[in-house]
Every structure is written in C-alpha cells, then in structure tokens.
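Quick look at the format.
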Amino acid sequence: MTIRTKTSNPLDTTPAPVQARLAAAWTSFMFLYIYVDFFNLYKPGVVDGILNGLVWRFEVSSTLLTVMLASVAIPALMVMLSMTLPARANRAANLVIASLYIPYSLFNAAGATAEWTFFYGLSIGIEVLLLAFILRSAWTWPRTVAVPAGALATAGRQDLRP
C-alpha cells in the first residue's frame, strides 16, 4: 500500500496581501508614467518648445510645474499609503485616486496626431489597465466577518473554579 502525501511545490507562492499588490501596481504605474513623459521628449519639437517656454500649449510657469509635480507626487504617495493606511481608508483612497487618474491618463491623448497613435494608445492602455487592477483590488478587498462581542467573551473565558 502506498501512502501519498502532498508535498509542496518549491515554486508555490502564497497570495500577496492586498496592500502589497496595490503598492506594486502604483509603483508600476509610476515607472510607466515617468518613462512615457521621458520618451515624449524625443518627439520632434518638444525640447525646442520647452526651451522656448512652452509645454504642450501651456507657458512654463511655477503654477504649471506645481501641477505637474502634484500629478506625479500623488501616485508616488499612493505607493507608501497603500502599505501604511488602515484597510478602510486604504480602500477608499485607492478607489478615489485610481478613478480620478483614469480620465487624467486619457487626457494625454489630447492633440495627438495619427503618427503618435500607437505610442499614446499603448502607454495610456497600460496605465488604464494598471488603474483598473488597482480599482479591482481595492473594490474586492477581503472582508472579515464581524463576530459579536458576546461570542468572543464566552469563547475566550475559561472556567477558573476548581
């Protein structure tokens, strides 16, 4: 008679906590976000426009640079907040911020010519997929069933009488 025991596969992995998945997704989003902006500098005329004081159609100003910094800082903060906020606040923050960044990401295609359709389509498509993953992870955050306080008190009580 052969007894089979279940041996674990050395490549088995346990599911990552929701907070870690969210932080990883925001990190991926940040890398993509920054690289898209960096690669955009290679488009003809972009650097000349910046040297002439224009970004897209906006004049370079402290207000513009502050808005641009905030647009990068929020997802960067979400990496840290996803790992440190309590579950309820974490879930809410991820749902709100990811929801706001979807139309913001789509705006990047404004004014794009047909020549750049694939570049913007690919970058925006991946950004939106990452944001959708964040939304799904936050929306389906596992919940624990509330146990009535009376049940906890009686289950943990030991009879100390001899």
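Next, a different chain entirely:
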Amino acid sequence: MSGSPVPPDVPARPAAGPAAGPAAALAAASAHYLRGEPIDMSALAAELGVGRATLYRWVGGREQLLGAVLAEMTERTYRDAVRGVGGSGAPRILALLERFMRAVVDAAPLKAFTEREPRLFIRLATMPGTIEDRAAELLARELQAETDRGALRVPLPTATLAQAIVRVADAFMYAHYLGGNRPEIDRALEVVELLLRPCAPENGDRAPEAGDRAAAAGGRESPGPAER
C-alpha cells in the first residue's frame, strides 16, 4: 500500500554541500517524485553537491532510495486519509482503507512513476520490505487503538493482522499491473471485511456495509482527488 496524494506542496529544495546528508537526499528525491520526475542518481548527487559514491553510501542505492521515498509517500497518504474518518471498529478501519486506496490509485506522481517503471514499482510495493513495513506499522496502530477502546477483539497480534490486510490490499489495488484491467478496491474491501468479521466485539454484531463505511468517512464512501 504505497503512493502519494495529489501533492499539496512540493518540498523545498534541500541544502547542498556539507550540510547535505541522508535526510537531504530523501527530501530531494521526494521532491522529484512529487513533480512526476525520474530519480537519477548522478543528477541527484550533483544537485546535493556530493559525489555518487557519497550518495550511495547515504541511501544504499537507487532501489533503496525509491523504496524510502515510496514509504514516505505511503505515510503522507495515510495521514491525509485518516483525517475526517469517524466511527469505530471495523467500519472505521474499512473507511480508512478505502480512502487510502482510492487516494493511492488516483495519485498523479505514482501514475507517472508506474508509467516509467511498472515492474520496479510492483517489486518495491508488493515484496516484503520498507514500504510494506511502513504500511503495516501504520495500520497496526489503528487496529491496536480500536482494540484498546473495545471496538475490536483481535484474536492474533495486531501486527500480524495488519500485515495480512496490507498484502490483501496490495494484491487487489495493483491488479491492473499484474494482468488485470483495473484496480479492484471494492473486492479488496470485501476480503478485508471477512478478515475483520471475527474481530467484532460481540458475535451478534452485524458486518459493516458500504453505508457504514460512508458514515465513518463522513457521509461519503471516499474523497475525490479534488477534495483532498
């Protein structure tokens, strides 16, 4: 589950020269990503005023840097999606996931990146690593918060459930890169709902439906790009 919202503000150009470092490299790469530009390591090193060897020592390589950028964008998108999500328990989790996934597939910077390097994106986004870890960590916090308030009864560690949900979401959200025709967000939500159903506080609770997700999202099933 990775991506970025329609960029509100592209980060300012980081300082070059001796003041630069790994954080500056990540900020510069993120700025290029949000503008829909390719990330070239030679050009990035020159922009930062360092040699390629120094840049590689900071970030570990282009794929590692791209993974860090996409993990950062995952968190930005999550922070944007979580605002305004109400409710509790499974309906809240499903509403948050829906807002997040629709923001991801609508993100212009991600579309630009996947048009250039679709295979690299799929490898980075769907294999265990930085991006999955960040997404699972963010979701685990939500699941734990709902558990702590008594709105969910998770029968296994929240980190394990969060990782399972992230992998389900990725498989359906990126179906169009894996031979499908389009993202299958509704199907992903149906499967996640089945995973969350045993976590209802009482066996008699009804399963959350689309209307519940809309209510949790503030009366809408998901925001459009222009609304974020």
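Residues 6-12, 203-210, 219-228 have pLDDT under 50 and may be disordered.

See the schema section for token definitions.
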